[in-house]
Amino acid sequence: MRDMSGLLIRRPRLVDDGEDSSSIERDARRGLAVRLAAGVYVRADDWRSLDAASKHTARVHAVLPRLGPHAVVSHESALAVRGFPLLGEWPRRVHVVARQRARDKVTGSVHQHAAPLGDGEIDTVDGLPVVGAARAAIDSVRRHDLRGATVVLDHGLHVGAYDRAALEAALAARPGVPGCRRAAVAVAFADERSESPGESLSRAGMRAAGLAGPELQARFPVTGPLVGFVDFWWPQFGVIGEFDGEVKYRDERMRAGRSPEQVVIDEKRREDDLRALPGVRTVVRWTWGDALRAEPMVRSLARAGVR
């Protein structure tokens, strides 16, 4: 996650430093800066370099100081500052729990939620008061379908941001809140063994299609020299499933000094070795686009014999 401390330009700070504060406003009018909140800007080049989650995080840092001491970053905004993934677009508004409010207040830039929140449910992340990870995840997934919820919940379990007991406790703390039944289904389905948003999205698509549930991160072979761990394994059908994320070809850290072409060759050799193992009939691969649309992935798995 990009450090926001040196990215945001606050007009009062310019004044304190004796600089011409009107220059940043002129830059914003000329398209050289982006206004995030009253008196808070970021250089246009810096803004273009940010991914969607970092842009939302920048808005959180820009807006929160103006909301007073009772505002605590919440919902998807709390997930953004913690580095969680999200399926789809990040919200246009910054979300906070405003503990002093009797009812919600929504403006063009902020959604202030009137909700109970104990001091023990608040963490500090990058200098900001932020709702605890389990509470933020549950508050977010109440508003998402199973696909979006699984991406969020799996990630938090996988990185250790919370455990299943913490999620269940966050659910139980606010019974009857809209979406709580949907969230309970997602919590029961969530699995810490999913290692990427693509794998989580794939699992939700398989469930929606009624396919048999796979084993996750299965070791091949079970004993002896390791060939590899696979994303999905259906032993009853002899089918291995692999989510083929493009990051392994583009991210230099994941390539570990190899060229993209060498990564492709190594993946092919690994797949051949897997196919040669006893009990393995075939290996099915799919991409992010296949998982997002679901039907291409499901069709490939069904063609391979997964029912």
Q: What is the count of distinct domains?
A: 2
Shape: globular
- Helical run tally: 15
- What is the percent of helical residues? 40-55%
Rounded average pLDDT: 91
Largest sheet: 4 strands, mixed
The low-confidence parts are: none
Radius of gyration: 23 Å
> What fraction strand?
15-25%
Alpha-carbon distance between the termini? 40 Å
Q: Please identify the structural class as seen in this structure.
A: alpha+beta
Strand order of the largest sheet: 4-5-7-6
Structural notes for this entry:
With 307 residues, the protein is an alpha+beta fold. The protein has two domains: 9-189, no CATH class; 197-304. It is 44% helix and 18% strand. It has 15 helices and 13 strands. It has helices spanning 11-16, 22-29, 44-49, 52-63, 75-81, 133-141, 146-159, 164-173, 180-189, 197-209, 247-250, 252-255, 260-275, 288-293, 295-304; strands spanning 9-10, 33-37, 40-43, 71-73, 94-98, 105-106, 110-113, 122-125, 128-131, 215-220, 228-234, 239-243, 282-286. It is globular, with a radius of gyration of 23 Å. It starts with 8 loop residues before the first strand and ends with a helix.
